[in-house]
User: Fold these one by one.
Assistant:
Number 1:
Amino acid sequence: MRQPNETTDRNALALAGLRITVGSLFIIFGQYKVFGTQFTLHGGFEFWINLFLQSGAAYPIAVPLLRRLVLPHATLIAFLVAYGELAIGTALVFGILVRTASVFGLILMLSLLLSSNYPSSGYPGGRQLWQYFGASLNHSVLALCFLCFIIGRSDERLSLRRLVAKFKWKWDVS
């Protein structure tokens, strides 16, 4: 029979593993944008926003925002996205400011969901509820991960915050 602490520890370890994996993905997403110039300075971000608008991938509620706010400030927002993804990833991998990073990650995923995951009108027989969920899997799954990191204690294990607290406690006791 398992002890309650063993189950809690396994869950904390699993959540920390998920946090580190999602963080690693965001470091990958952010690093090529930060260290390359195609996304930020050479129209990569603007290209994608225009593609979302032209293909009908943006939810109708997001279209005016994309046209009137995002496109006129595309370079600035591209830099915010690039450095934001890198910061989110770094915070998650190291287990520091996890909840704060997760709030920003959730906002980013919801923004991307509304900007790029509207099921096209090409579905025969109109849109069904499952089509909205199916079209959004690439962003909604990560959004749910961020929600778990906000609610849970994913920084309990394998985190710099926990390591520093442990060494600080040992230093204070001595």
Note: Residues 4-173 form one domain.
Number 2:
Amino acid sequence: MVLILGGILSAVAYSRLSTDPVVLPTQAQRLAAVIRYAQNQAMTQGVRYQVRFTATTYDVYSTAGGVATQVREAGTGQLGPYTLASGVTITIPPTNLSNSALTFDGRGIPYTNLSAPDSLLSPSAATLTLTKGTQTRTVVISPDTGRVVVQ
């Protein structure tokens, strides 16, 4: 009887651990922090910074010296691309981030293109949707101000 009860408890514990509810919110907060970091660096250094997205990775670039150069991650010092946790994917909005990238100028204003000054992120916010299984979280970047919010 004790072994059967132990087996049932183990199965329940394993199923809860394998669908860890903290993974997706943590990944969304990390992505938002990277976007905020790129915006902050753009304003501090006065050059454009860009965050590029794929379905499972993201990367940060600077245009210092007129050339797009990868930026090291602030926390680890490693070069990207930075991979999302297993099973987490990003859906990129085709309407206002058609090139799968978000750029900030020296004033922190979001653009959709690294070199085109007329490619403002507008009129609507860009919403990156992170998904793991049936869970979703969104990272919303406001046009004009570049405010980043996790929902």
Note: The mean pLDDT is 84.
Number 3:
Amino acid sequence: MQPTNDQPQNSFPQTPENPFTPAQMQAGMIQQQLTLAFSAAGSNFYSIAVFSLINSVINYFEGNVYFPIGLGITQIVDGFSAALQQELPQARMVIFGVNVALNLLIVGLVALTGFIIKKRVKWLIAVGGGLYLLDGLLVLLFQDWIGGAFHAYFLYRVWTNWQFINRASRAAVPQSAIETI
């Protein structure tokens, strides 16, 4: 291909200037990291809800295993339900229905917590973490050390996400500065 007269023979096309300032790029990266941190925190609560539901299904079929990340309160509800069903066989279906309703309510609230946290509601991380801490203490009351260790691990994950979100929120440039680009 022959160069044209208006284009020098050894030149490359000019790259356009970056329209973003370093401050705008940094603000955009912080916003992206905040979104990821909120998503991670919310996903922790989704995991807790799912494993609690799986534990309840396993309890219904009288299985011998459980997932220690699940909620201790749903296991207690399942235990009371099983004991009441043996004591009152004539009310077995009613007790089972109440058990399912309570478990779905508890699991639904935990999943809803995760959903709302993903919508960037920071204070709910602390509330959800506090409730999961209480559940962990309940697990330890029954001397479930493995369950207590998993509760501690997930509390650590929730705590580190919450700390990052607090630091990054203070450092973040207001969203309107990003939108002016």
Note: Residues 26-169 form one domain.
Number 4:
Amino acid sequence: MKEKIHPKYGKTIVTCTCGNTFETRSVMGDKLNVEICSSCHPFFTGKQKIVDTAGRVEKFQRKYADAARAKKVIKKAAQKA
């Protein structure tokens, strides 16, 4: 391996938004902030949690709410006929 071309690999303190902190090794620096970790991720906790930082879930629900209502109206009309 060539010398003096690799980044510094050292201890890093990782802090999650849920408050969990742990120490690991990384080239990212001394401190690293993350939005989700193993103590709050739905896969590890078994609880449903929607992580939405830009309003994407609400935008999707608004977009397809009219389509869902129209589908119900069509279904009711077909049952009456």
Note: The longest strand covers residues 10-16.
